[in-house]
Structures are given as C-alpha cells and as structure tokens.
Amino acid sequence: MSLDLTRFYAADQGLPFPDRWAVMPWRPQQPVPPQEVPAQWQALCQKTLPANKRLVYLHIPFCATHCKFCGFYQNKLEAEATEQYCDYLIREIEQEASSPLHQSAPIHAVYFGGGTPTALSARQLHRIIVTLRRSLPLAPDCEITVEGRILNFDDERIDACLDAGANRFSVGIQTFDTRIRQRMGRRASRDEAINFLRKLGERDRAAVVCDLMFGLPEQTRASWLEDLQIVRDLPLDGVDLYALNLLPSTPLGKAVGNNRVTLPDVSMRRDFYLEGEAFLAHDGWHQISNSHWARTTRERNLYNLLIKKGADCLAFGSGAGGNLGGQSYMTMRSLDAYYQLLDAGQKPIMMMTAATTGEHRWRLDLQGGIEAGRYDLSRIVEDPFPIEPLLQQWQQCGLMHSDGPRFNLTPAGRFWASNMLQALQILVPQLTLRNDSHAHG
Fold first, then answer.
1. What pLDDT was estimated at residue 355?
2. How far is CA 91 from CA 88, 110, 164, 211, 313, in A?
3. Closest by Cα among 288, 297, 298, 439 to 372
C-alpha cells in the first residue's frame, strides 16, 4: 500500500511545522437524538461495561472572577447558589450510584474541576467528597484531586478536603509574575502565591501540584526562568507546563483579535517549553506526560493520564463531560435545566453520542501513547510499514527516535506532539486495523 506521507513531513530547517495544533481528547461525534437520550442512559446504567479503567469527574461551575484567558467561566460565585448546587450535585450522585454501571468497576481517580471547586465552602466540599466515598466503589488508592486557585482557598477549606479524603491538590498559578497575573485577572501577588503553595506543601498530607503557562502576554525568557526557579524551591510534588490555548471568545482572545495585545509566537513558545523541560530534567524531575512532571513518588497524575488513554469516566455536575464504553455525554450547562431534570428524577444530560463500533479504541490508545511520549504502531495496525518512512523523516528532523513502528518522542517532539498525532489519526484508517481487542493489550 502506498500512502501520501509527504504532506505530513516536518521541515528540516527552522520550525518543523508552521504552527502548533491544539488537540482535545478524541470523542465520537454521532449524536443520539434528544428524545432517545433518557432511555439510552437508563439502559446504560443497567450494563456492566467491558473491563476498563474507571474515573469520576465532577464539575463545579462557579468562579469569583473571570480570568481573561479562561473559556470555562459559567456562573458568578454566590453563597446561596452554591448551597443549592451542592444539594443537587449530591442528589445526582446518590440517584444512580447503586446501579450496575456505577458499582461494576473500581474508580481509580476522581477529579473536581471547574470553574473553581475551591470556591465552595468548607462544609460543601466535605459533603461532596464524603458522599462520593460512601456511594461509589473507590479503589483503596484512588487519587482524589481538588483543583483550585489561591483566592478563597483558606485553611478551613483545605482541612475539610483533607479530612474528607482528598489526597491531591492542583493549583492554577499560570505565572508568579504579579504584573502578568493581574493582567490575566488573577488577584494574588507573587509573594502570596509562593506563601500559599509553601504552606500547602509543608502540610505533607497530599500531593501538591501547580500549573505554569507559557505564551502569556508580555512573558519573557527571564520571567519564565524565574517561574521555574520558584517551582524548584517550593515543596511541590508535581508541575504542569501548559501552552496558552487562546480561545477567540475569551476576553484575551478578543484583545488579541483586535491587536490590543500581542502574544509570544510559536518559536518563542517552543523555546519556553524546551527550556522548562531541560530545567526540570536537570533538577531530577520525572516527566510523566508531555505537559506534566513529578518530583516525588506521591504524584501520579492518574486522572489526566487515564482520561487520554480512554478510561471510562462517570460525570456529575452541571457542564460535566463523561465517556462510557465509547459513548460520550455532557450534562446541562444551564443550572435551571440541570435542576429541573434532577427534580424530575432524570440524569440531566444535554447531549450524548452513539456507541462506536470500536474506532474509539485505537484512537484513544494512540492518543494515550503520544501523550506518554512513546508508542508502537503495531498495537493498532496489522502492517505499520507504510507509515515507517514518515517516522524516519520525523527522526531526521529531531522529533523522535524510531525503531521500525516503535518510537520515543524527543523534547522537541513532545512540543509538536499534537501535530504528529493528527497526522497519524489521518493515516492509520487507511491501513488494516488490528482486532479491537489488541488496542488495550
């Protein structure tokens, strides 16, 4: 078989690709007609799915402020609204927790995302975590992550999370540079962010990780290096290095579109990433995925790794997304619609996709391998030879080390991983796929 590989070749001088493509975790696209969703959900709840890792995602759709780069803002933080939401979220968990679907597999990771989960009160956080642990079959070593930010995350809330069973905190920092933070809508200063993370880490009761972001307005090599040095000197278990994903609908996206703000170009973003990778490697951090590093054995980053490898995910809360046996679903983003359906005794699903015939298996296996920085194409195709010349060309351009169908990404390759993933996702369906059972072998 002959494939047209040349259009996916990397340039051998300068940037290998004109830009870095953003790739979201793959999900099937064929929607279930809205009138059929309730019956399909009820049928799914009575199933025991094939063996697969299992996760839980909970969405907390409230924020005290709207950060200028964020595309996830939904609802303004109000005490009365969060109390009502907490009651309904617990009702959603308890409503179907005893079903065969929910009880049929151990849950290896729970992730509280948002929004800002730590905007909830201490009592509300404690209630939700305790409800989860009481109602669902969490594995003994289940990773329970609470995502948050410095604002409002006081000692009382931290104690409530720890006492209820949370064992991992992911704190959105983006940068310690006070001026850039304030431009992005973050209120805490450099010193306040440092002091918060130091106190949280010194408790020594849970894994503590923080997010750094590169490609921010007015970010320089000097400010990026200072961020890395601060992370090195804090008692952290892990760190994420994320590229700014500019969404046109956000305040920052509109400012860039109107030429009121300029961002570092892709060449500068690549240099930021490579400098961060080299800095952390020199300091002894272990790279778990393309964007995540661990310094201690306490940090596993289970949820993020498993979700990209195709783990089943139960979703709870307004605006939450889940995936079960190849069927994706999202709950109602409107709080009123979310409450109305729960009052009617229904799972508040806004949209759902039809079950796939197995395509999701190979796509997610490939996606998870690229995220981990290594893969063997013979896992998913009978004869990977037609693609091997492309792997060799990428190797010549410094993006990977390949051995036939097996490859390991270099640091530069990890930065451009989404480009290579998209190319392989286009090419693989033109080859003969292995039986679906091989994909998760």
1. 81
2. 5, 18, 18, 32, 19
3. 288
